[in-house]
Amino acid sequence: MAFKDNFRGDSAYTQIMTKIFNIFWLSILWLLCSIPVITIGASTIALYYVMLKLVKDEETTVTREFFHSFKQNFLQSLPVTVIVLVVVVVLVADFHILGAAGRAQGASFMYGFCIVLGIICAAVFSYVFPLLAKFENTVKKTFENGARLAASHIGQTLVITVVNLFPVLWFLISPQTFSAIFWIWVFVGGGVQAFVNSLFLVKIFDRLAEA
Predict the structure, then answer these.
(1) What angle do CA 21, 27, 32 make, to 5 degrees?
(2) CA–CA separation, 51 vs 1, rounded Å?
């Protein structure tokens, strides 16, 4: 009887397995909707729109609400997506150029500067799309709020940034082991990262809503 109870709709086991399935399904939806690249922003906003609800155990129809948010925020997300993509491309190009420069004078300093700048940008960007999923605001104000939250919640920002940069860090530290699970990470990584981040973000956003 106890074994059968695990499969009741209101059992802890069923609720946990449903949440795991929803996280993986959201990861796939996010991946598919991000393929055109320019839609990454809208896809990420939709991912967090649903994930923040899942973390708070709110009633949600995952697929329908994902696409509702995607369509609703598509145009609003475009300038933000372009800004983020330009920054990423510039930083990657800088790292490539500085790496090719090797031991040239000043290259080490510039390399370190780019690393620090990249981490700061990653920290701010980690808040931008979740903020758009939760609050309506202008592009400028969203980036300003992202910077403020990143600076005022250092502990949470550190964890969230590390989570978002985890694939890059793993690849740099151990490319062999990362390549072994690359395709698994492609399909489930986005959802797992968003879920972990949302555990911190819901508390931060709840405090913002109460302020």
Answers:
(1) 130
(2) 33
